[in-house]
Amino acid sequence: MKLISVKTIISLVAGSVILTHSVFALAHNQSGSFTTGLAAAVDFYTVSCTDDGNGAPSYLEARVKDMTANSSKVNITIQKGTTNCNTNACARFSLDATDNDAGYSPLIKLTQGAGTYNLYVSHTAAGTDSYDVELHCKTATNVHTGTSTTSRQQQ
Ligand SMILES: [Ca+2]
After folding, report:
1. DSSP 128
2. CATH architecture of residue range(s) 29-153
3. How far apart are CA 68 and CA 74, in angstroms?
4. Distance 69 CA to ligand 1 centre (A)
5. Has this prediction a pTM greater than 0.85?
C-alpha cells in the first residue's frame, strides 16, 4: 500500500516535470516597456516563423498583456504580406483593455505562412506602460514551430 503511494507520487512529480518542460518549450514572450513614455511611442519587432522540424509555419498568433495599471492601454498590431488582404488578413490588432489583471488581450492570428511578420506595440496615452507579448508560429495543424523575435525599435 505504502509502495503504491510512493510510486503514485513519483509518477505525479515526473508528470509535472514533463508538463513544465513542454510549457516552457512552447512559451515565446517578448517583454518591454515604452522608454519615452510618449503617447505616440511605437516598439517594433520582427518575428521570424520557420520550420524548426515541427513543420512548415502557417500562421502567427499573438496577444499582449498590459502590466501597468493606468489610463493608457497597450495594444499590438501584427502584419505580413500585401496580397489579397481583404480575403486573408495582412494585419490584425488587439488591445488589452484591462491593465490591472493578469489577463491578456484577445488572441489574434495572421495566416501568412513562413517568413517575417512585423509586430508593433503601442499604447493609447502617455505613460510608462510595461507589457508582455506572447507569440507563437504554428503549422496548419496547430503544432508549434520555429519562432524567433528581434527588437528593431524601442520608444
Ligand atoms: Ca496601462
Report:
1. -
2. Sandwich (2.60)
3. 9
4. 5
5. no
Distance 19 CA to ligand 1 centre (A): 32
Indicate if the alpha-carbon torsion angle 109, 113, 120, 86 is positive or negative: negative
Domain boundaries, given as residue ranges, for the chain: 29-153
Phi and psi dihedrals of 15, rounded to 5? -60, -45
**Residue pLDDT, tens place only, 58-113:** 999 999 999 999 999 999 999 999 999 999 999 999 999 999 899 999 999 999 99
> Mean pLDDT in the chain?
89
Tell me how far the alpha carbon of residue 10 lies from the centroid of ligand 1, in angstroms: 43
Cβ-based burial of 138 (10 A; exposed 0-12, middle 13-18, buried ≥19):
buried
Q: How far is the CA of 49 from the centre of ligand 1 (A)?
A: 29
Q: Which of 25, 26, 48, 27 is nearest to 152 (CA)?
A: 48
